[in-house]
Amino acid sequence: MPTLQELANPSVLTQPVYEPGKPIEDVARELGLDPDGIIKIASNENPAGPSPLGIEAARRALAQAQLYPDGGCVALRAKLAEKWRLSPEQFVVGNGSNELLELVGRVFLRPGDEVVMGAPAFAVYKLVALLFGAKPVEVPLVNHTHDLAAMLRAVTPRTRIVYYASPNNPTGTINNAGEILDFARALPPHVVLVFDEAYTEFVEADGDAPDIRPLIAEGRHVIGLRTFSKLYGLAALRIGYGYASEEFAALLNRVRQPFNVNAIAQAAAIAALDDHDFTARCVRENKSGLAQIEEGCRELGLECVPSRANFMLVKVGDGARVFDALQRRGVIVRPLRGYAMPEWIRVTIGTAPQNEKFLKELKQVCA
Ligand SMILES: *Cc1c(COP(=O)(O)O)cnc(C)c1O
């Protein structure tokens, strides 16, 4: 009898596995710590909690949990259309924007195709390429920032997708908005540009993020991806969206599951879009948190990468050791072994007291 391994599609057996940050409860149990004393600043979650308007709407929606969700996300897409002055047909909603990253692969990738991305960039891009038998083409960052000219040079006739995030994860850096638009316009027409805007709201308020809607209007093959997981604090509910041409959105809608986004998430997202006081406060507090961590690192003599997102890279020498030592002290950060940056950790900007605790423990651990 063949084993299950022998029966499996060979590409599944070589598929790398995404390593998520551990939940607080697991760390507490493993290390015998009080979960209430642990802070998790590892997964770029919102330290202010979820959008209050979003949670209120989610609670109300729970009362109707016996019903299937609206498979077309009609109300949310109408709301998004109004917000962005696009048509509802230009939107596709996903189970987190992670699902949309994969759906783009499902629509466009065949074995042997090439997918261009930065290195380091969000780990999921590479996983999606490999999942569909495509070849990840990784273009090293320069000064921790995407090298757009080199990415353009990496494009070949086999390139089908370019994944690009601004701000980038894990570096938190951005390219100039004008340069990003020039890059998009310079790509040949057989390439689809996935513009991952998971953290763009932290930059948008300062006018430093590109508006990609003109690219869509020009008929370019580009999709913007947004998430409710970061600024809106709804990571647990799993909801994000893409906006593109109607044709692009229709292709993605064709390959998703009919009820890919649950009703609680849809209700929360619709309400959270109006939670302007909350989001403005989060952007403000994130900015002071970035300054606090940067300043603290300077005092400790540690190099950090000035970030425009809600996290920051800090060079600590032995990232695995510092990650481990911090965790024993109740501070969970992200080691970057998986991103080939073993000397660095990535820390999510927390509340002011969390940032202070991080810096205090970092000082002890690095002394
Ligand atoms: C967090 C993140 C996302 C969003 O993930 P969700 O699936 O929406 O929670 C997308 N891209 C990048 C680069 C991220 O860091």
TrEMBL record:
It catalyses: L-histidinol phosphate + 2-oxoglutarate = 3-(imidazol-4-yl)-2-oxopropyl phosphate + L-glutamate. Belongs to the class-II pyridoxal-phosphate-dependent aminotransferase family. Histidinol-phosphate aminotransferase subfamily. Transmembrane segments: none annotated. It comes from Ereboglobus luteus. InterPro entries: Aminotransferase_I/II_large, HisP_aminotrans, HistidinolP_aminotransfase, PyrdxlP-dep_Trfase, PyrdxlP-dep_Trfase_major, PyrdxlP-dep_Trfase_small. This is Histidinol-phosphate aminotransferase. One of its GO terms (biological process) is L-histidine biosynthetic process. Residues 38-361 form the Aminotransferase class I/classII large domain. Homodimer. Keywords: Amino-acid biosynthesis, Aminotransferase, Histidine biosynthesis, Pyridoxal phosphate, Transferase. Pathway: Amino-acid biosynthesis; L-histidine biosynthesis; L-histidine from 5-phospho-alpha-D-ribose 1-diphosphate: step 7/9.
